[in-house]
Amino acid sequence: MNKKSILFITHHNNDFDHFLPLICNYVQNKDFVVKILAFYSNDEILKNKLHQHICRENSIELESMAEVCHLKALNYFINNIYSYSLTSKESKKTKNIVEKINQAIIGFLKSPKNTILQYSKLMILRYHVICSIFMLNENKIKEYIKLNNIDLLIIDQRSVDKELISSNPFKGFIDSYLRKIDPMNLVLFRVTNVARKCGIPIFMMPHGPQPISQGNLDKRNKLRIENQKNPFRPDHLILCSSKEINSLHYMKGLKSTSCLGDPRFDIEWINYLESCALEAYESTISKPVGKIVLLYLMDIFTYDVENNLSFKQEMNKDILSLVNYFPELEIWVKHHPRDVYKISLDFIDINRRNNIKQFGNDTDTNILLAKADICLAASSTVLISPILQKKPVIFYSKWKNVLQNVTCIYDGMTFEASSKEQLIEMVELIKNSNYSIKDSFLQPFYKNVFSGECLYENMLEKYIVKIDEILEKPM
């Protein structure tokens, strides 16, 4: 029997998470060949230690978009210089002339204050964007697809007007420059379009559950979707739950639309990620002795239809000021991957400011989840993992004071706080071990979020059955 070949198109390090359960499954299955095309480079996908660890452990290999483009040799050279400067460290003095030259290059790139390195990073990213628009043309994509005998293309959930998916590089560049289309979407859907012309089915996976019922809180994004005359539709659209069908009706699959949940939230996968995170980070991130760690999982919502940040900042202040009331509390702030910024701590007692730590994209959320005593979020779907593990969690729903007639997947939780005073009360209760999550909450929660028939239903298995069904049908 001929092996089936599945191509995953990945971009950004946090979106790689959506594919990993499926990738790990198919890499271990000898009846399948897994190809992973990384946009724009492998370094973009493998930013943190956990992803690197999982890829090593499962022998997962990625191909960079730059390896498929024209100018492959030049791209290979540029990527190696950049990757080398990021991963190498200055070593002790040596008499070896080659090592001396290496140290001199690294020292130059990393000084002063990484200015040159940051500038290089920006320039290389711009180069990758332009290179992908002009050099990843239809012929190159067809060549890659045929060379690897691709049978199924898997992408994540995204929307774009078909009119803007141009194979003409000059039109694509102008549309990107005028911000009619994100350059990543332009190139990703160019690959998808060519795959469709070659008769390859398109399988679109979800980013995760929709935490808030109100359509789209980002007015610009909502307007962009409404202005789409002819949105691209996959052959097979996968949603987390049946509740999402109404809001994503414009993306309905041409052949099927299925509600299969999200394999990232299978309890086996959650526990696997936690064990891998502990191995990957070892002692680099440790819980302070004698402290209670509260992990604040940030999101990208402003909870304001006018996109006003003031209310979000007020919520941040409520949460972080908890250290003023609990001297034994340390708060770890995990910023959303697409919105990393330094929060001012002027409102924190000067002697307690060291009790707040902030983490960006260089630290994977799973190691923080593994170490935390309490997890708190206003709407982040990452909170689902500790809920299913029955760990102490707090849902901060103060934003409902400004958003009317809105529901959230965390509604009904016992430990829900809608004010700063209630937050203090919840932390006090958890600190005194007065906490539990009952199956009577988890069962309807699971069904609501994942359309699951029973608690801890294996969602990965549902995806495998669906993919098998697609691959068995003649193209």
Structure description:
With 475 residues, the protein is an alpha/beta fold. It has 2 domains: 4-68 and 136-264 and 463-472, Rossmann fold (3-Layer(aba) Sandwich), CATH 3.40.50; 285-450, Rossmann fold (3-Layer(aba) Sandwich). Helix content is 41%, strand content 13%. It has 17 helices and 13 strands. The strands form 2 sheets. The protein has a 7-stranded parallel sheet with strand order 3-2-1-4-5-6-7, with helices on both faces. Helix 3 (49-57) packs across helix 11 (267-281) and helix 7 (138-147) packs across helix 9. The longest helix has 21 residues, at 115-135. The radius of gyration is 23 Å and the shape is globular. The protein starts with a strand and ends with a helix. The mean pLDDT is 85.
Please write out the topology:
Elements: E1 4-11, H1 16-27, E2 32-39, H2 42-45, H3 49-57, E3 63-64, H4 72-87, H5 97-109, H6 115-135, H7 138-147, E4 152-156, H8 169-177, H9 183-197, E5 202-205, H10 219-226, E6 236-239, E7 256-259, H11 267-281, E8 292-297, H12 310-320, E9 329-334, E10 356-359, H13 365-371, E11 374-377, H14 384-388, E12 393-396, E13 416-417, H15 420-431, H16 439-450, H17 459-472
Parallel strand pairs: 1-2, 1-4, 2-3, 4-5, 5-6, 6-7, 8-9, 8-11, 9-10, 11-12, 12-13
Helix pairs in contact: 3-11, 4-6, 6-8, 7-9, 11-13
